[in-house]
Amino acid sequence: MGSGGMGGFLGAKLAVSGHDVIFIARGRHLDALKSNGLKLISQNGDIHIDKLSVYEDTRDVGPVDLILFCVKLYDTKPAALACKPMMNHDTFLLTLQNGVESADIISNIIGPGKMISGAIYVSASIQSPGVIKHSGGNDTIQFAEDDNLPSARTDILENIFNQAGLIGHRADNMKEMLWSKFVLLCANAGLGSLTDSGTKTMCADPDTKEILLAAMWEVLNVAKAMD
């Protein structure tokens, strides 16, 4: 669900590793995917998939085994509702959104026990319609059930991601997994936008480094207060 930077990257990697992948997209990106296929420009080697199964309306898809939920946070509710026609008793959803609240929103819509939370460490974006640019990250994907225990579903995720050349593994603590990424995201996104700088540049300057660390501690304190 969502074929932007993250969804397009994952879809391309899974497709070339032999999995049947259905892409959900909209607008000019949808048109380009239908006409020209998907191109992934990556530091690890480019991928071009000429023919895709791509849809705008999820009601045309039918039930699937797994949904990778890769939309922006502001699209969570409508995207979760759109997932329902693609789900049956055996379908489960892996959300790879940033933040710590989307899991509750999604579960309230698709029903309890149908979702796994995840965190992905990949930098990818739409370079142009139909073209995804993979620019960084360590290609790691973490995920965990609500009870933090191993399951058949976490085993499936580990297998498919590792087969695709990614680093997929179950996290020991779901909340810790989500907050660990959120700490970095909040601090870097806020100060990075203010200074128009990347993490390395901010850390190289003593003043911005101090502010960056203070922002991280503030998010950590919020996490502790909510635990």
Describe the model.
This protein is of the alpha/beta class and 227 residues long. The protein folds into 2 domains: 5-172, NAD(P)-binding Rossmann-like Domain (Rossmann fold), CATH 3.40.50.720; 179-226, no CATH class. Helices cover 44% and strands 24% of the residues. The protein is built from 8 helices and 9 strands. The protein has helices at 5-16, 27-36, 76-83, 102-110, 152-163, 174-195, 199-204, 206-226; strands spanning 22-24, 38-42, 47-49, 53-55, 66-69, 92-95, 115-128, 131-144, 167-170. The strands form 2 sheets. Strands 2, 3, 5, 6, 7, 8 and 9 form a 7-stranded mixed beta sheet that branches. Strands 1-4 form a two-stranded parallel ribbon. Helix 3 packs parallel to helix 4 and helix 6 packs antiparallel against helix 8. The longest helix is centred in the last third of the chain and has 22 residues, at 174-195. The protein is globular, with a radius of gyration of 18 Å. Residues 1-145 form the Ketopantoate reductase N-terminal domain. Residues 173-226 form the Ketopantoate reductase C-terminal domain.
